[in-house]
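User: For this week's homework, look closely at the record that follows, marking any run of repeated tokens, and judge whether sequence predicts the tokens.
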Amino acid sequence: MQAESESVTPNSTKEEVDGMPTHRVSTAGHGNEFIILGNRKYYRHELMTAFAGNFNPERYAPYPVHQFGNASALSLSGFGISAFCLGLYYAGAMGIKTSAVAVSLCVMYGGLVQLLGGVWELAIGNSFAGCAFTSFGAFWIATGCTSIPAFGIAAAYADDPAMFANAQGFYLLGWMIFSFLLLMLVLKATWPFVALLTSLTTTFAVLAAANFTGKPNVLTAGGVICVITAFFGWYCAWAGVANKQNSYFTPLDLTVPIFGKSVS
């Protein structure tokens, strides 16, 4: 349900950053039981805090007006299994040389389902999750399309495999930069957030290097890191649905400490 709030004195005001309004965050009351966001005061229990399980890196944020199921857990599940299978393929596990099964996951679960989950998150106002999941949903679909002959992507480079490898390297390098930008937005959130996006950024970097260098050992390393990333994604997905009513184990609140001056 939407958090109930009450107005506070005018000295808790909005600031502007690059012309856009933002809110100062402060505390009040005995034991700091109140959180003040801009000109509104909330009890701590009325606010969400940074949590990888719902892919929201905000230190404090009111609950969304519209209450739906946790689409972030669904998107993270699709991400996890797609990264797991594709990573094992890149790592050369069990001598598998054809990526057809991994491609099917890329397009449908990691791609389409994650894309829809991102749209769902946008509908409830979680811009970070919406941006991340719609983008990575598109990534998985695009990655799958590269390996589907009907799209003719690989065939376009049939006469120059080295050009194809370099093109894929640039493609992965772009996603590495995007993942790094997301990583910069979770450094005040939780450690699972940081671990997931650090591992994902590293995965893209190593796979890009594998395409640029053509060295099988680098590709294998990228596949292994991709598998590790999948487990971080699965942990965040589990954290989004596990509670005391359905699980003997619940996720720890591993909030990253804020260094320096605490600001909005």
Notes: Residues 71-241 form one domain. Residues 81 and 216 are 23 Å apart (CA to CA). Helices lie at 71-90, 100-123, 127-146, 161-184, 191-213, 216-241. The first strand starts at residue 6 and ends at 7.
